[in-house]
Amino acid sequence: MTSIKEQAAISRLLSFLQEWDNAGKVARSHILDKFIETNQGKTAPELEQEFSQGASLFLVRLTTSLRITYMTDSCLEKLLRSIGIFLSAVSSNRYLIEFLEVGGVLTLLEILGLEKIKEEAKKESVKLLQVIANSGRTYKELICESYGVRSIAEFLAKSKSEETQEEVQVLLDSLVHGNPKYQNQVYKGLIALLPCESPKAQQLSLQTLRTAQPIIGTTHPSIVDCVLKVLGTMHLEVQYEAIELIKDLVGYDVRQALLKGLVALLIPSVKEISKLQAKILSAHPQPADVFAAGRGRQGHRSNAEDLYMKIDSIQADILAANTVNVTKALCLHGSSYSMNTLYGSRDSAQMAYLTHFEEDVESKE
After folding, report:
1. Spatial CB neighbours of 262, under 8 Å, sequence gap ≥ 6
2. In whole angstroms, what is the distance from residue 135 CA to residue 151 CA?
3. DSSP states of 6-61 as a string?
4. What digits encode the pLDDT tens for the residues 319-337?
5. This model's pTM is above 0.85
């Protein structure tokens, strides 16, 4: 037989549940606000005391409301935070099982993929998935079996909030630890994220890969190309994480492939060289062009020094770089012909002197 105090507590519980059942959207929002404010951080026994050993009756109403309204985003963030109070409470395994039995994991994963849902609600969904994953290997496997890795990775790539992305990283890190059956799936999901357009997602994926690599023990064939391509990013924080991962990968069987890929990155392609040459030529005239332009501007001057006084520093550098070893060139192309061409007909004394000068230069080289 229940005491008067217990009967009063049960009466209050039934009254509270009836209030929830009859409440509209605005009223339910206020009920959730009050529940979150007064019960945050409570243990499972404390929640049972608050609800006269009937806390599960309110939890089932929260999960039912979540499943019915999550696509419309009606009080979604508050619903998820309220459910989180139950699932994260100490000694809350009973609540966790009740939530999973009604398809809680699938609902949370679906929320991540809906475009119309606000970012804050999605972050709360990620936090609940963290709580589930941290409850043990069985629960990590349940998330992965529900195609969770793909859903979570896609959300990380699309999210516009760095704070939310960091919460996703925590979740992925949890899924790669203590999950031998599906750790390779998480590892491949992280590699698949590297070509995405979000620099933050790339950075976080690289960081998590560094943690995952020693756990996995072996490398996936695609990791080399994916990491090397990331090096081309303009975001220094991403480059840094890629370099750190490459340092780790050197100790695995992809060392040769990494070295070959890094060397290839140092060699510019023919297309890049052609573009660069075209830019240089269009920006800075060549020495012949400088001379022609000089003649056009100054006429046929008798003093060549006047021409070089008019060129700028860039043109001077180009001219200085175009040095020719005249003597060596003459030897290569036939000294007698070249000498006659350059100097015309000379007497034997002059030719002997030039030959001696040529030999002297060669001996010094």
Report:
1. 228, 246
2. 20
3. HHHHHHHHHHHHHHHHH--HHHHHHHHHHHHHHHTT--HHHHHHHTTT-HHHHHHH
4. 555 555 545 544 454 444 4
5. no
